[in-house]
Amino acid sequence: MKTKITLFSTLLISTLAFGQNDKNIHSEMNTYTKKIDSIILSEKVKMNIELDKLDKNFKGKSSTEEIQKQKTEIAERYQNILNEKIENEKGNLENSTKEMVRNIVLNPDKRYSLTIDPQSGLLGIFNNKRVKLPKDYLHSIKLTASFVSPSLTSGDKPFGFYNKNSDVKRTSNNLSVYTYLRYENQLGKFTSPVFYRTGLGLRVDYFTPENNKVFAQDGKNLFLQDFAKGHLKKTLIYNSYITIPLELRWVLNPKYIDYEGVKYIDSRKTQFYVTGGFYGGIKTGSTIYNKYSTDYTKKIVEKERVMVGVNNVIAGARIGIGYGGVALFIQKDFTPTFNNDALITSKYGLQIGLELLSVNF
Q1: HEC sequence for the chain
Q2: In angstroms, rounded to a whole number, what is the distance separating the alpha carbons of residues 286 and 167?
Q3: Radius of gyration of the chain from Cα atoms?
Q4: pTM for the whole thing?
C-alpha cells in the first residue's frame, strides 16, 4: 500500500515542472491521499461487519481453526478488492497527468489542476480560468450606461444649448439614457495610447414641452397645443433608437509594464483620456405620454404612438474626456430629430452626458 501511495506522489509532483505551483501540488496530493484513505476505510468497515457476523453466527458451532480459516478468506477477498480499486485510481491519476502535460505544452497560458470529482469520486483534470496577460487587458467588452441632459437647437444656432426660443423645457425635465455594449481594442503597437471603440447601443430621448403644452398630431403634422382634458401632471415625447458608435480613445498619461521582454501599455491602471467619434442610429419607436387628473379621477395615463414628424435616422459626432470609468461628453446630432412635418422651431439634438456605470465581460 505504501509503495503505491509513493508512486502516486511521484507522478503528481512531477507536474510541477509544467507550471503548477507548490501550493496547488500540495493541495492536490492531499485530496488524492484522502480519496485513497476513504476507499481503505470504507472497505475496512465492510470487512469488520462480515467478521463480526461470522463470530456471532458460528460462536460455539465451529472449531477455532475453521473460524480462523474463514476470517482469512474474508481478509484476502477484501485485500483483492482494495488492490483493484487502488489500481483503478492509479490509472486515473496516470491518465490525468498525461492529459495535463499535453494541455500545458499545447496551451502554456492556461492553468490546469487535478481534482476529485465530488459526484463520481474520480480523479480528473480541470481547466482553471485562464491567467490574463498584459496584452489581454488591451481589449475589452463592456456594458456602459450614461445619463444625458438633452436639448433641441435650431439649424442656424447648432450649439445654442438650452436656447430660450426652444419648444422644449430647458430644465432637468429632459433626460436621455444611453446603454451600450461596447468593444474596445488597441490600435498599433502594444505601447500605443490609441484605442478604437464600437458596439451596439440603446438611446432614449425624453423631451417636455414648454408653457404647459403637449405634443399632438393630426395625421399630417406633429405640433404643440394647449391641454384641455384636465389637470396636466406630466407630459413628454420620447424617441428610442438603436445606435452604433465608432470612436477613438486617446490615453493622456499612459503607464507601461514589461512582460517577458515586451513593453505594454498597462490598461489596468486608472488613466486620463479623451474620446472622439461618430454615431448613427435607427428609430425603433416614438411615443407621446400624458398623465393628468380630472374631477372624477386622480390619475389618467395616455400613450400615443407618433406617426409623423420624427426622423427615422439620426447621425452625429461626440467628444469627451474621462478618468477611469467616469467620462463627461458632449454630442451633436447632424441630422434633425424632427422633420418638416413637425411644426416646432428647434429640431436638432444636442446633449451633455456623464458616463458612470461600466461592467466588464
Answers
A1: CHHHHHHHHHHHHHHHHHCCCHHHHHHHHHHHHHHHHHHHHHHHHHHHHHHHHHHHHCCCCCCHHHHHHHHHHHHHHHHHHHHHHHHHHHHHHHHHHHHHHHHHHHCCCCCEEEEECCCCCCEEEEECCCCCCHHHHHCEEEEEEEEEEEEEEECCECCCCCCCCCCECCCCCCEEEEEEEEEEEECCCCCCCEEEEEEEEEEEEEECECCCEEEEECCCCEEEEECCCCEEEEEEEEEEEEEEEEEEEEECCCCEEEECCEEEECCCCCCEEEEEEEEEEEEEEEEEEEEEECCCCCCEEEEEECCCCECCEEEEEEEEEEECCEEEEEEEECCCCECCCECCCCCEEEEEEEEEEEEEC
A2: 17
A3: 36
A4: 0.65
Model pLDDT for residues 291-347, shown as the tens digit of each residue: 999 989 989 999 999 999 999 999 999 999 999 889 999 999 999 999 999 999 889
How far apart CA 152 and CA 173 sit, in angstroms, is 13
pLDDT tens readout for residues 246-269: 999 999 999 999 988 999 999 999
Query: Exposure string (b/e) for 264-294, b if CB count within 10 Å is 16 or more?
Result: bbbbeeebebebebebbbebeebebbbebee
Distance separating alpha carbons of residues 43 and 223, to the nearest angstrom: 87
Q: b/e map of 306-316 (b: 16 or more CB within 10 Å)?
A: bebbbbeebeb
Look up residue 195 and give its three cell numbers: 484605442
Q: Please report where in the chains the cell 469520486 appears, as a residue.
A: 121
| Amino acid letter for position 201 | G
AA letter at 159: F
In whole angstroms, give the CA distance from residue 335 to residue 350: 11
